[in-house]
Amino acid sequence: MAEGKSLPADLSDRGVTAQIAGAVLHPPGSGWAWLAVLGASGLLVAMLLVSIFWLFFKGVGVWGINIPVNWGIAISNTVWWIGIGHAGTFISAVLLVTGQHWRNSLNRFAEAMTLLAATCAAMYPVLHLGRPFYFYWVIPYPNVMHVWPQFRSPLEWDMFAFFTYLTVSLIFWYVGMIPDMAALRDTATGRRRQVVYGLMALGWRGSAAHWARWRRAYVIVAAIAVPLVVSVHSGVALLFAVGPIPGWHSTIFPPYFVLGAVFSGFAVVVMLAIVLRAVFGFRDLITDRHMDLLGQWLLATGLMTSYGYVMDAFTAWYSAEPFERGTLLDRVAGPYALSYWSAVVLNFVPLQLLWLPWLRRTMPVMFAVALAVTLGMWFERYMLVESALSRDFLPSSWGPYVPSLWEWMLFFGLVGFFLFAFTLFVRFLPAVPIAEVKEVLHEEREE
Q: How would you describe this protein's topology in the membrane (predicted)?
């Protein structure tokens, strides 16, 4: 493969269709590995259902939250899941609008990752309501009582942010998949599959008019999605920053949160890409060049996030405000030192390996670095939320927080839900876009 090219020169259109459609219609191996992953993640989903049932039966008192820490890992996990979803929107929309065509081998499964991560994130605020069966009260719908939601409540703006994010991401994901549904319809041999994929293709015949309208719709939805990359997570960060809590009241939070979100999202994209290459043999579609570029993005966003770490600590110390310094001391050498230093070490020490180009093309190294970043960002979110709440401006209310067993079950259950749904996605839908990869292939041949 020539330097600068993202796809092999000898890859043909028919080869692209055969690899991607074949992974759906004729999956490699006997299917036992797929069933094993589905079964293992299904057990975690069962644990999720048990934890939700117990929560509904007993109330939020089964969690470890109390005064002053009335936001536990439910909120830090919400921020973590939203962050993971950001890289999908970034790869899909921002790189499309800016003409970065190497994204075409990655955007489909990255968008699926975004949808699933946003779904996991949205579950926490609903479950945290106390009376989750009234969650629709935050929706401003016409009703006979003429009662409107409290628009000054952060919870209300969470609803708008999540709903907009999920809706635009779902539309963008589906619009991009329409030509590929037609390809599966024309390739499938079973009547049932032909009907299902034909319905999802919405009558696509591949005419010039279809391509022109599809391209226009795709770019328009991408342009709508671009502001979401910044607005959703910076909105969440502002909810923290405007709070009168030491450790949160900082103007650096919005860019700090957005960069950290893209950083953690790219880490999960790297892990999913490596697994897809290994399981489905997508090495000609997700090439070493793609992994090299992902490694560069991971390194760049990681260094930007490290700047946020330094400035957050510096402003706390330079403010000379005793409560801000107390929270910083708690993080660096107090009860939250484990989560603080875990975040620092996991996010930045393994990341330095990516300065070497040959290590960015070594899959075990890339997977290990991405896994370390994913764990490190979880520790960062936990440290930011819990350390600040446990030590506010009222010393008489200071108190520790310990997550309960049910909170951990809910968290690991949602990880299982993510894996379960993603396993179903790669089995029944094309994980890599057929039409867009062919487009890149032709463009690179003409260069």
A: Multi-pass membrane protein
